[in-house]
Amino acid sequence: MSYPTTVFPQELIDLIIDDAAEDTQSLLSCALTSSSFYPASRRALFSRIELDMHTKPDVMTRSARLNHAISHNPHLLPLIKSVVVKRMFAHERGSPCFLHQDRDSLDILLRLTHLRELTLIGHIHKDWALLSPNLRKIVASICHSARLERLTIDSLSNFPAHLLSSCLSLRQLELTSMSTLCHETFCTLPNRISLESLALNYSDAFGLTKFVSWMFQPGCNVDLSRLRRLIVNVRRQHAYSWFVLASKTPFLEELEFSVILPGEQVAI
Hints:
The chain is of the alpha/beta class.
């Protein structure tokens, strides 16, 4: 493939790519503009991907096309730094039928050894134990990697606490929409995890209190002493726990605290 030879300042190219980062079609157009645009466009296109773990049968999925692309161009794999894992269950509310496990999505996830960010989007009241064994094994492998810096768990109950404790490079953690940890799987690890950002949004009230108690157990290796950013949405009857949590973070620079009252939400 030949490109026009026009050369633009790299600073200008970076600004254009940053502005188009959320628009796939614009990034594709930039990649075809000139050879100077191609590397930055490619990085932006592949830096963050979304994978549906269950799809309709006999449908050519986005994951199938992506798997085909990286199988023939393995140099693209290191560009993928962030992945959003969705449709983790075969049947979810609103789905017209049971979905089939997408083998291409599993294959891609298994090959992502350079991940820095992982987002797991489950379904309210759906349990970690209900995930397929293959998916649980792959997620556990990613958590044990030395590269993962950010973990978001959305609408997933009983995520094993020992997997969280094994993310030794973890700097940002977010639990949202009724997500809870299973502390029965907790084990003491010698290495410390120094969190810099913690967000707890609309979680189960009992789970929030349990999470705070776990954080302050002597054997917990998650260190909050260097936390700089704390975002909490909490029910009124459990608000005191979060004032205690904030008081234990001497380097805190940003605090967003919202108390959920019946019919309204009050930000502090």
